[in-house]
Amino acid sequence: MIEHKINPKAIAAMTAFLEALGVDLKKLGMEKTPYRVAEAYTAFFSGLQESPDTQWGELIKTSSNGLVAVRNLRFYSICEHHLLPFFGTVQIAYYPHNGQIAGFGHFADVVSVLTRRPQLQERLTSQICDSINAGVHAEGVLVIVQATHLCLTMRNSTALDSDIITAVSSGRLKEGTEQYMEAWKLLTRKDSDE
């Protein structure tokens, strides 16, 4: 696990926040909670110090120009509106340019960097697509993100089983094309459908 330096201002701010809400830290035995929260959020937001575009490494030359899919990349992030978690999966399909592909782990690294910062699911989906375009020079990209948002489910009893789906595409996989539909089916099919 990566060690992150905890800013004393974050600890003081969390102490002030909890006390402003009427939490008696000493009485409840929560004196260390501000430190723990500051430590956790320092890790949760560590992606702010990294660029997803530096995660790609050297591309691999192949003879394949067919559709490549990376499915079910699991993630956790923090919604910037309420600072509560949202979590789910990322599905990615792309057409390589001139047979140039990236190692599969690089896709997970990009998702990791982008989810370790305050996020909106819609922005996350676009940022993943943009990074793939920049890093792999893909001829077409489709990114689908499906997530559960605790800011919705914890605050609304009718939304307990809800999930949010966002999609962004580019190039040969632009929405409305036959290739888009092929990639969408590939990325959204359940294993039991195979």
UniProtKB/TrEMBL annotation:
<dbReference type="GO" id="GO:0046654">
    <property type="term" value="P:tetrahydrofolate biosynthetic process"/>
</dbReference>
<keyword id="KW-0547">Nucleotide-binding</keyword>
<keyword id="KW-0554">One-carbon metabolism</keyword>
<dbReference type="GO" id="GO:0006730">
    <property type="term" value="P:one-carbon metabolic process"/>
</dbReference>
<dbReference type="InterPro" id="IPR043134">
    <property type="entry name" value="GTP-CH-I_N"/>
</dbReference>
<dbReference type="GO" id="GO:0008270">
    <property type="term" value="F:zinc ion binding"/>
</dbReference>
<dbReference type="InterPro" id="IPR018234">
    <property type="entry name" value="GTP_CycHdrlase_I_CS"/>
</dbReference>
<feature type="binding site">
    <location>
        <position position="82"/>
    </location>
    <ligand>
        <name>Zn(2+)</name>
    </ligand>
</feature>
<keyword id="KW-0378">Hydrolase</keyword>
<dbReference type="InterPro" id="IPR020602">
    <property type="entry name" value="GTP_CycHdrlase_I_dom"/>
</dbReference>
<comment type="pathway">
    <text>Cofactor biosynthesis; 7,8-dihydroneopterin triphosphate biosynthesis; 7,8-dihydroneopterin triphosphate from GTP: step 1/1.</text>
</comment>
<comment type="subunit">
    <text>Homopolymer.</text>
</comment>
<keyword id="KW-0479">Metal-binding</keyword>
<keyword id="KW-0862">Zinc</keyword>
<keyword id="KW-0342">GTP-binding</keyword>
<dbReference type="InterPro" id="IPR043133">
    <property type="entry name" value="GTP-CH-I_C/QueF"/>
</dbReference>
<feature type="binding site">
    <location>
        <position position="151"/>
    </location>
    <ligand>
        <name>Zn(2+)</name>
    </ligand>
</feature>
<protein>
    <recommendedName>
        <fullName>GTP cyclohydrolase 1</fullName>
        <ecNumber>3.5.4.16</ecNumber>
    </recommendedName>
</protein>
<dbReference type="GO" id="GO:0003934">
    <property type="term" value="F:GTP cyclohydrolase I activity"/>
</dbReference>
<dbReference type="GO" id="GO:0005737">
    <property type="term" value="C:cytoplasm"/>
</dbReference>
<feature type="domain" description="GTP cyclohydrolase I">
    <location>
        <begin position="12"/>
        <end position="185"/>
    </location>
</feature>
<dbReference type="GO" id="GO:0006729">
    <property type="term" value="P:tetrahydrobiopterin biosynthetic process"/>
</dbReference>
<dbReference type="GO" id="GO:0005525">
    <property type="term" value="F:GTP binding"/>
</dbReference>
<feature type="binding site">
    <location>
        <position position="79"/>
    </location>
    <ligand>
        <name>Zn(2+)</name>
    </ligand>
</feature>
<comment type="similarity">
    <text>Belongs to the GTP cyclohydrolase I family.</text>
</comment>
<dbReference type="InterPro" id="IPR001474">
    <property type="entry name" value="GTP_CycHdrlase_I"/>
</dbReference>
<dbReference type="Pfam" id="PF01227">
    <property type="entry name" value="GTP_cyclohydroI"/>
</dbReference>
